[in-house]
Amino acid sequence: MSNPIIELKGITKIFSKEFTLENINLNLYPGEVHIITGENGSGKTAVMKIICGIEKQDSGSVFINNREISLNSIYEAKKEGILYIMQDTNLYYNLSVAENIFFDKLSGFKNLLGINYAHLFFDCQRLFDELQIKIDIFSNVQKLGLAQKQLIELAKAYVSNAKIIIFDEPSSAFTDSETEILFFIINYLKSKGISIFYISHRLDEIVRIGDRISVLLQGRLVGTKTVAKEMKRDVIKMMTGLTFDQRYPKIKSNIGKAILEAKHLSSQNILKDINFFLRKGEILGIAGLAGSGRSYLANCLFGAINDYLGDIFIFGEKKNPKTPSDAFKSGIILLPEDRIECAVYENFDALFNLTVMSLRRFVDKSLINLEMLEDTGKGYIERFSIKPEGINHPLTHYSGGNQQKLILSRLIMTRSRIFILDEPTRGIDIASKVDIYNSMNDIISKGSSILFISSEAEELLGMCDRILVMSNGKIVADLLPGKTTKEQILYFATM
Amino acid sequence: MFAAERLKVIKNLILEKKQVEVNTLSQLLNVSEVTIRRDLEKLESNGFLVRAHGGAILAEFAGADPKAGLLSQPGFDEELDDIAAIAARMINDTDVIMLTDGVINNYIAKKLINKKNLTVLTNDISISLTLSGYPFLNVILLGGVIDIHSRAVFGALTNSNIQRFFVNKLFIEIEGITENMQFTAQTPEKATLIQEARNNSSENIIVAPPNAFMKASFYKVGDLRMADKIITSPNIPDSQKNYIFNQNIKLYTSINLFEGSV
After folding, report:
1. What's the CATH code, domain B3-63?
2. Domains of chain A
3. Which residues of A touch B255 (CB under 8 A)?
4. Interface test with B, best of A242, A362, A446 (most B CBs within 10 A)
5. Between A7 and which of A27, A155, B43, B135 could a Cys-Cys bridge form, CB atoms 3.0 to 4.6 Å apart?
6. pLDDT digits (tens, 9 = 90+) for A202-257
7. DSSP-derived 3-state class of residue B206
8. What ipTM was estimated for this complex?
9. CB atoms within 10 A of CB A111
């Protein structure tokens, strides 16, 4: 094999008492896909941030083509030919899809005189046709769901001139059809000799696209191995052969009458005549592919999108929330699909993140009673076994799963009656998943209700009392889990 | 309303309902939650109630530990009670169940007194006592030799006694679970009893306190696959949650975050 294009030697960095990177040695060859995997909080993203100059190592060196480099920003990394596609998408929300994709190419001196938009849109449409991406190139990125944003990031990588591309869990929101586009792009990049670091938890991706795999554990590199052909065969066999439908801790609840009803809800040609009801103590699943309108529906119910026609009844009264605050006052709360973008206050501590929606409860003679606030916060963190323990760690110290548990605790602390959970378990570790399923049991056993949006048919079948399937902005099926299979859900979702 | 008057209202309410919520009291009495919490703290220091998540429970009700009289084991363990609450939700009116001896199963028994036409088989003397006064329950106490530590019956007599029954839900309380999820018991008699009971049930539900995990007792009962469901506290190691989920077995944890009563 030729020389590695990038090499990390003895990278060490102390982030905090609980978290350090220790003596990381990694390399990447031209045209190679090197998978980085490990539990949440094991340091995968931290290593990548050092490569890109976002963080600076305490000791150790990074070499590109045997030349030691010292990068101070992601801009300098770009100049070295390194492109970092982050876990939380990094797009310009007020620009169009086409502008976002070609943004790096637009930033040049000659464009100061004006951008040839016709050309830009033409190129973008041609690109999307080639990649079979079905997103409106003129629409604002703001209006898109997470999976669609991730697709745009992939397309950006596809047109970039980068020599080294880092993908940080690029497919967490993808369903099968988008995953095929991802594999197509990766293979194309490989054929061009581009080298890729690819962070992933998904076994199917690891075996399908990986050449080598490195595992991190608690800030240390456990080892690097070649992904062997036999392993691919075995893993794929294992993954397609078994069904794991017995592991969801569903609990019986007392289901009452309808407390949330949508009647003839339509919006923007994205939602088309939606009618459904959610009952007290019920978990109602919403299945559907990315772009089917499920998150858009959630945002309408929560008043975050308010240009809808039709009516929303809450506890039998017509409410039609126009703002999230309206919805919240009527007892609705939303766990957004995109946790990092819409829910987490990254630079504030756990206590702030936990109690920010419930501060009114702690008002004591027009001040906040800090002692009670802290006491309550500690109680929640212990009861949900959120780690690290304690209430003063900044959110950046928590793994994705623990962040999600904190945000869900924030919602539960509001004692709302209708919980809309949009992909609550996506991209998080198994232990946190189990905790989140059980906290859903807690919510319904106290008489609240859950609208559970998920791409994972299995968890919907395991946890829900009923499942609605959405496709192209419509509800196309109303199913009972006991009488339904994964395949049936997929069938309706692709209608 | 004066503070003294407010305390009286709270006291009357809790005597009547056995438990109260901070939120409800705050709305009812039109004072802040902070004030209500201070009132509850006061009443707790008087020994009138025990504060719980988001509310309080009448002291005698909470402290009425089922084994307190028999085993001098005072104190109310909220964590174990939460585990028992999950188990109780799995029990329907006309079920035929067995509870093996153990503290959590005693908590479960306490929650069954309002069931109708439920049949409970047990080898635990205090469970049978707890349930003995209710006409809508069928309680069957197995015969056998009384073990002085657990106050339950074991031995050949008990095992042959079990053969005569078939239950649709068997709640097995386990005190030792090894790192690779083998269930163990402290005495050979208990291990044998569980194995016998398993042969005569359609669904096996393991209940375990969090400290049972990563702890081995000497006598092997069986491996993870004998369990259809496991109920424990959320405070068990992540590795064990992983393991159970990956083995396709339901893991229920007694998460009690939402402030309010069932």
Report:
1. 1.10.10.10
2. 6-241 (3.40.50.300), 258-493 (3.40.50.300)
3. 383-384, 435, 438-439, 441-442
4. A446
5. A27
6. 777 788 888 898 888 888 888 888 887 666 656 555 544 456 778 999 998 899 99
7. strand
8. 0.89
9. 11
